[in-house]
Structure formats: structure tokens, C-alpha cells
């Protein structure tokens, strides 16, 4: 049982992955619940993180910085996947002229 306690208290890469995954899972789980007909969705991940910080759960700042950068990379990649197919077709519809004017 000592290893479970140390998993949440001692700063390590494994601790950061477990804590961030647990907070995300709790937040996404609560996001599916409807309160008075309203669901906050992904916003509950933010609230679960605030609650975890209030309860004293912390992550190594270096690992948190890495997770932040990795999250930004995943966000930009997914945005590129969504916007990418229509990007080059916009050049065929007068987009080159609009880009030259800009």
C-alpha cells in the first residue's frame, strides 16, 4: 500500500502521468452528467484540476511544463487535421489573390 501512497505524493514522471490522467478521467466522467438539464462537458476537467490543487495534489513543475507543451502540440496537430483539407482548395477559389492583397 506504500507504493500507492508514494505514487501520488513523490514527484516523478509516473506520478505526473497518473495524476493528469486521473484528473482528466474524473473531469470527463463528470462532464457526462447533467445537472438540472445542463452539462458542462469538458469544462469539468478544469474544475477537477482546481479541486485537486486545492486538496494539495501537486506535480513536478518540469513535468507540468512538458505536459503543457505536449498539449499545445496535440492541439495544433488536431487543428491542422481539421483545417488542412480545405486549405489548398481555398487557393483555387481566388485565395491566391486574397493572399497577395493581404
Automatic annotation (TrEMBL):
InterPro entries: AAE_transporter, YidE_YbjL. It comes from Bacteroides ovatus. It is a multi-pass membrane protein. This is Transporter. Its main location: membrane. It comes from the Bacteria. It holds the Pfam family Asp-Al_Ex. Residues 20-102 form the YidE/YbjL duplication domain. Belongs to the AAE transporter (TC 2.A.81) family. Coiled coil: none annotated. The keyword Cell inner membrane does not apply. One of its GO terms (cellular component) is plasma membrane. It is found in: Cell membrane. Keywords: Cell membrane, Membrane, Transmembrane, Transmembrane helix, Transport. The chain crosses the membrane at residues 12-31, 38-57, 69-91.
Amino acid at each position: 500500500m506504500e507504493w500507492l501512497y508514494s505514487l501520488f505524493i513523490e514527484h516523478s514522471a509516473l506520478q505526473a502521468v497518473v495524476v493528469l490522467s486521473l484528473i482528466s478521467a474524473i473531469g470527463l466522467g463528470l462532464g457526462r452528467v447533467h445537472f438540472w438539464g445542463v452539462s458542462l462537458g469538458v469544462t469539468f476537467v478544469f474544475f477537477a484540476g482546481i479541486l485537486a490543487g486545492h486538496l494539495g495534489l501537486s506535480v513536478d513543475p518540469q513535468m507540468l511544463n512538458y505536459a503543457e507543451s505536449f498539449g499545445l502540440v496535440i492541439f495544433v496537430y488536431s487543428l491542422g487535421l481539421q483545417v488542412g483539407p480545405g486549405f489548398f482548395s481555398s487557393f483555387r477559389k481566388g485565395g491566391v489573390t486574397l493572399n497577395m492583397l493581404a
